[in-house]
């Protein structure tokens, strides 16, 4: 990290991170935070649509057509007494994003130890993912409503189709950009803070042996957990996740089209541009996190901080667990919405959520331990010879 020395001076005590940043990086970080804050304000405005919903009679008695932004969605959830979803969106998608920006600015200007600041940035990065829970809830609704309708008999044998249709509004894209800007700013500050804490990290030579040789039992456990988590993640995205039943409210039932959905394919049919963004967060980064964890342990590489930092940074952009929580909240309140029949991928998601973060932590611990062991073993050999 010779370039780290040039970027940031040594900081033996507590210093303000803002004073350590080069001017161009100050401008980038501040710009990202300001853009994120402004877009968050725009997204809260009642006139900013997240979803446009078209519903034909008689289905409009259950789903009110029109444009839905954050405020309109909260109003509808409150009217239907869907308090779980209401509280989740209110806290994570409306209250937390501006609070996160203010906390980031506080950490940027507050004089504190690098280790303390690093812990705070890591917590902010992990919590920041959950601000997108309303986006995944909207994605779930669009999947459910895709090509849905009800055949109604009209007159003497005639049949008409009452349709449900949803389209993403520009507010959905603005909100994703807002959250990504704040996440990008935090990711940059994490890196600078790490360099400030250790401007001259130890240099390691490339070894002919993989880190798994030095990780011991920890490495084996990490590999098993990473493979298991990767399998659950791929099954969650590629297998059928649910099918539609209909409006089932007590004895009153309206069956809908029995369409079966997969996360990986259905969202492309619903909203292709939006699907590209969601595919990165739901398929690519979760899989890369586990593949990277396995790779740094089994492939002979030049070890360093990048090995375990890479696992943490990738995990901060992996959001399948956020989508799963949005789906769980929906299922808990589906009696007031469209009822679903869950499929194998749903069960994989339910198992994925409790193992994802522990797997990341175990892999990071195993990699750190292996690097330490690889570095100390040659020194012990030299000491024993002398």
Automatic annotation (TrEMBL):
<keyword id="KW-0812">Transmembrane</keyword>
<feature type="transmembrane region" description="Helical">
    <location>
        <begin position="130"/>
        <end position="150"/>
    </location>
</feature>
<feature type="transmembrane region" description="Helical">
    <location>
        <begin position="83"/>
        <end position="109"/>
    </location>
</feature>
<feature type="transmembrane region" description="Helical">
    <location>
        <begin position="211"/>
        <end position="239"/>
    </location>
</feature>
<feature type="transmembrane region" description="Helical">
    <location>
        <begin position="26"/>
        <end position="45"/>
    </location>
</feature>
<feature type="transmembrane region" description="Helical">
    <location>
        <begin position="170"/>
        <end position="190"/>
    </location>
</feature>
<keyword id="KW-1133">Transmembrane helix</keyword>
<protein>
    <submittedName>
        <fullName>Uncharacterized protein</fullName>
    </submittedName>
</protein>
<keyword id="KW-0472">Membrane</keyword>
<dbReference type="InterPro" id="IPR007498">
    <property type="entry name" value="PqiA-like"/>
</dbReference>
<dbReference type="Pfam" id="PF04403">
    <property type="entry name" value="PqiA"/>
</dbReference>
<feature type="transmembrane region" description="Helical">
    <location>
        <begin position="351"/>
        <end position="371"/>
    </location>
</feature>
<feature type="transmembrane region" description="Helical">
    <location>
        <begin position="273"/>
        <end position="299"/>
    </location>
</feature>
């Amino acid at each position: 990290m010779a370039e780290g020395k040039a970027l940031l001076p040594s900081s033996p005590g507590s210093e303000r991170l803002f004073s350590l940043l080069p001017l161009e990086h100050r401008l980038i970080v501040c710009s990202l935070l300001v853009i994120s804050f402004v877009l968050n304000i725009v997204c809260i405005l009642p006139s900013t649509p997240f979803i446009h919903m078209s519903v034909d009679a008689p289905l409009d008695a259950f789903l009110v057509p029109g444009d839905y932004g954050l405020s309109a969605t909260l109003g509808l959830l409150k009217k239907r007494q869907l308090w779980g979803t209401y509280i989740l969106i209110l806290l994570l998608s409306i209250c937390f994003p501006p609070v996160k920006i203010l906390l980031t600015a506080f950490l940027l200007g507050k004089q504190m130890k690098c280790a303390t600041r690093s812990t705070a940035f890591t917590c902010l990065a992990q919590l920041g993912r959950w601000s997108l829970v309303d986006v995944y809830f909207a994605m779930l609704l669009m999947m459910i409503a895709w090509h849905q309708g009800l055949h109604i008999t009209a007159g003497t044998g005639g049949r008409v189709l009452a349709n449900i249709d949803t389209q993403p509004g520009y507010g959905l894209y603005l909100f994703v950009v807002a959250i990504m800007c704040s996440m990008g700013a935090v990711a940059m500050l994490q890196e600078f803070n790490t360099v400030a804490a250790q401007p001259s990290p130890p240099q390691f030579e490339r070894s002919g042996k993989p880190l798994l040789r030095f990780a011991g039992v920890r490495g084996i456990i990490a590999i098993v957990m990473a493979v298991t988590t990767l399998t659950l993640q791929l099954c969650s995205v590629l297998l059928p996740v649910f099918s539609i039943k209909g409006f089932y409210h007590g004895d009153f039932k309206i069956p809908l089209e029995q369409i079966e959905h997969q996360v990986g394919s259905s969202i492309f049919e619903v909203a292709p541009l939006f699907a590209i963004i969601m595919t990165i967060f739901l398929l690519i980064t979760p899989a890369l996190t586990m593949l990277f964890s396995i790779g740094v342990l089994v492939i002979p590489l030049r070890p360093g901080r990048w090995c375990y930092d890479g696992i943490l940074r990738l995990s901060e952009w992996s959001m399948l667990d956020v989508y799963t929580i949005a789906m769980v909240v929906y299922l808990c309140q589906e009696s007031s919405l469209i009822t679903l029949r869950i499929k194998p991928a749903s069960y994989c998601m339910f198992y994925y959520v409790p193992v994802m973060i522990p797997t990341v932590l175990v892999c990071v611990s195993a990699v750190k331990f292996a690097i330490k062991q690889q570095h100390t073993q040659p020194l012990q050999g030299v000491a024993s010879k002398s």
